[in-house]
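Example record

One chain of 119 residues, shown exactly as stored in the release files.
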Amino acid sequence: MSRQIDFAGKSGTTYRYTALEEDRFLPPAGANFVIAEETPEGARLVYAGETDNLANQTWRAKLEAARKKHPEAKVLTRLNVTRAIREAERSDLIAQHEPPMNRENRENRENREGRENRA
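Predicted C-alpha cells for this chain:
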C-alpha cells in the first residue's frame, strides 16, 4: 500500500491519509484513522474512525478485528485536532464508502436499541 492515499468523501472533499508504522512513536494528538485493504481497483475502506489521542492506540482493536476478515488491512491516519472536524470527516467518508465494519457497528447498535425499546 502506498505511503499516502487520498480518499474522497461524499461531499467531494479529498482527505490525504498516511500509512501508520505501527511500531513508531505516535503523537498524543487527535486524528482520523481509516483501516483499508489494497484491491485491484485501489484502496478500499474497511473502517473509518477518529480518536482524540492517537498515542492511546484505540484504533488497534479495530485493526485486529478487521484483520480477521481482511488479513492485509492497514491503518492510515490524518491528524485533526478539532473533534467537530474529525467527526465531520469521518461521516463524510462513511457516507461515500460505506465501510463494512462501520455498517456492522451501526446495525449492531440499532439492534440493541430496538431490544431496549421493547423491554
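Notes: The chain has a mean pLDDT of 89.
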